[in-house]
Amino acid sequence: MVRKPSHGDTAGAGNGGTEATKERKGLWSPEEDERLFAQITYHGVSTWSSVAQLAGLRRSGKSCRLRWMNYLRPDLKKEPISKREEEIIISLQRSLGNRWSAIAARMPGRTDNEIKNYWNSRIRKRLNAAAKSGGGGGDGGSSSSTEPAAPAAEEKAEAELTNAATEAAPLPIPARFPMFACQVLDGAGDGGSESTPSSTTSTQQNSGDESEASVGDSDTIHFLSFDDLDYPADFLVDVPGAMDAWESELYPANPMSSSLY
DNA sequence: AAGACACGCAACCGCAAACAA
DNA sequence: ATTGTTTGCGGTTGCGTGTCT
User: Fold this and answer.
1) Which of A56, A225, A236, A254 is most buried (CB neighbours < 10 A)?
2) Which residues of chain A fall below pLDDT 50?
3) Counting runs of H as helices and runs of E as strands, what totals does chain A give?
4) What is the pLDDT of residue A78?
5) Which helix (H) or strand (E) holds A64?
6) How far in angstroms lies nucleotide C6's C1' from the CA of residue A37?
7) How far is the CA of A137 from the C1' of B5 (A)?
């Protein structure tokens, strides 16, 4: 149910339209996406507000960041959240609470927004439904409560639902996740501009697999996967084969290039 | 066929932390 | 030490689409 972008200056939260300087809001147009993607790909990110400016976008830096993080980033998985991933989300939510960014950090290719939406629209609903059917009175909705603390019935239902997650013993999280970055290798537009994306790849060190996509006119972007990221030790285990298991489970295929537009 | 309702997703808002001047 | 700016996060809202009546 992907909403079609009703872009153009109309979608923008009531921007009358006459002002060429006023910030745009609302859904992003393909043109805006293209500009933002190219800007970040070619020049990286110094500050998000400058990205917006340099890309010629009438968007806030905040909005640009969100768009990149939740939609344009090349390392995002495009396929729906799988059953296995759902189990992981449930499991992580139990241990971390509603710290969506922390949960997302443990699920490569997924964004905090995506996970949050998934939780709010599906999992929580199911938990509530299960709680109701389990006889628990209470407000099924418990409207604003997304926190793990739950009344007895809900807790019971949740336990049912999460048994699978815990008993199925989610794959141990490998000490290193695959990550993707992008880098212009060929014909990098205006000469001299640094081709290393800055903040988005600041922790990445060496390259692994590689794929291609084209952006803008004729330049070729090579997407590089990295697997030497350091993750906090408190949640990582170094199990032989874990990396491969996770990679094949969560990263069945390099999702980028073809799916961007 | 048409309207009402429910659902899912994208994006915004407000706040706090981090950082720079 | 203070102030201003930027970034990151979680909660919430708005809207397009699908389904039901």
Assistant:
1) A225
2) 1-19, 135-261
3) 9, 3
4) 84
5) helix A61-67
6) 20
7) 24
